[in-house]
Amino acid sequence: MKVVRRANLNWKARFFYAFKVVLFIYFVTNLKRVIFSLTLLNFHLVKSQIDTMLGERKHFVDEFSEKIKLAQHELHNKSQNWEELSQKIEQSKTSWLLAGISSALDIRIPLSDRPVNYTAISSDGSQIFPDRHEVLPCYLINISSVVLNYGENGSANLSSDPVLFFKDEDRFAIWEGKKIPANSNIISHKRTLMEFERLLQLASENSDRENIISISDGTLILWSLEGSPADFKKVILEPFLKIMDEFKNRRVPIVGYISYPGSTDVVNALRLGLCPEKVSYCNQCPYTELPKLPCSPIEGLTDRNLFSSLLKEGEMSSVFRSSSKILKSYSDHHIYFFYLNIGAEVARVEIPKWVAEDPDILKLVHTLVYDQAKKGKGYPVVISESHEQAVVRGKDRNFFFDLVKESMVKADFNVSISRKGISKRVPGV
Amino acid sequence: MEHIGEVIESSTKGFTAQSPKIGKSPSFGTFVKTDSTPVVYGLVYEIITQSSEPGRKPTAYDMSIDELKREQPQIFELLKTEFHVLTMAHSQSKEIQFTLSPLPPPIHSFIYECTSKEKRELSEQDFFLRAIMSSSNVPVDDLIISSLSNADKIRKNDDEYIVRMGKSLSRYFKDDYERLSSILRRIL
Questions:
Q1: Does the beta carbon of B70 lie under 8 angstroms from any beta carbon of chain A?
Q2: Which residues of B touch A157 (CB under 8 A)?
Q3: What is the pLDDT of residue A24?
Q4: Global pTM?
Q5: CA–CA distances in Å: residue B5 to residues B81, B129, B163
Q6: Is residue A104 domain-resident?
Q7: Residue B26 phi/psi, 5° resolution?
Q8: ipTM of the complex model
């Protein structure tokens, strides 16, 4: 009997022990939930707003196929007499960017054979912005260099060079005649310029290669300079246009690649075509009293939506002229663009005027950009590798400032950071 | 003589080296040495080729190596080959001592394959077999077989040597006949 009772006691003790473990886990889990609900984003509130957003989006999706059909119809319709639309685009003044047209809109250009040997170059940049709560007011820009040689002598060069900016001429910029500390906007422009400088350097170092193409991540249209004062604009734009001159002189095509573009230049041109006015002036629109504007039936579509339904894999669209305001300062290097179906998506490819006007180089750009995107499984491999080389991650940023501090301590400098800086690093409870 | 690796991780019991070329490393069971002072001698027991960036992983391209070199040349810049070495002996002067080195080789020391004379000296006694057997995390049986085969090749199939080492193994594995038998059958 004693044995049985002992066995029972063991069983009970085990049961209570298990119960205590479950209670402890429940407590810890809930404690974590309470702490997280205090310190992190409240996802319960976010989720209900996501649902509202999707409810409104569904309305657009329902109308989407009708809009696409109408836009396609307009695309073919206006292509019959594209000169007329082109003239209207030239004369009208709209609140949107309009694609300049110099050929039918619905042209589909098939892919040409790729040359066996070619070289793709790219450069990307990443930065550690200055932080006034950190120990020293300095910043860092990391610029990558990627050269990929394809064909008989396949080879690759991948590297990156960080540059630390700490001198007064780097830390301050002239903005509307005033000397102001370099902020994220100024540093980002400086970084963009450095990327193009590196691209040119790579192009000149590889000038003996055949079929060379330089691909930049993103647009060649520095539209974000539009809001900058003339003195700062000049600092960035002048060297940029000199670089563009060099590319032209060397006959090395420079390309801006935009994945999943949200631009609407061509759709806007079609919307202009829908306007009953002979010449449209949006600020004097006579149809504002109507329940719907005549130009609204295809509103909300992007060029990507339109050309995804037109272009087959490998095909490129006609070449269009961008009407971005900043391009008035580009003189001989006005930017043109076309859409290209790379299989996984339709991408926007931007090119300077001289490339748009040279059929052989344009054909080469078409073929090589497509090949790059195929090699990179949907995104040009040369761009993704240059991004990987350049990227500065959050932990690198912390390590960088720690390194600065450590070096200062070793050199017997007085090191102090703001209370805010300390508070961010070591949040108290 | 060209170096075959560079130390990138170093500890008393062993070290890791990176090969200067992808896929080119000393083979499993090779006797290697460092160019440091003291010279550290060891046996290669693991060879790894992988992505050089922790967040990236190689994927299949369905292409031959030649095609990959022509059409995806960047991937060869993003891989690295490393090999792990088990420390067996060291030498402060000319004489080799069959104990762990008082200090591990410094990082970035170069690695060379041992000369025939050094290999002969390192394998003359059964200390290297004991070093392998007393190590954890190494493929003990296969490392014994490979290193013994390498030692035997230098001696141009010296029967007396193989018998002597076999006797040592039989002492080490006196409690595990099956294992001893498996090793000996694979050496002979």
A1: yes
A2: 77
A3: 66
A4: 0.82
A5: 9, 24, 34
A6: no
A7: -60, 145
A8: 0.76
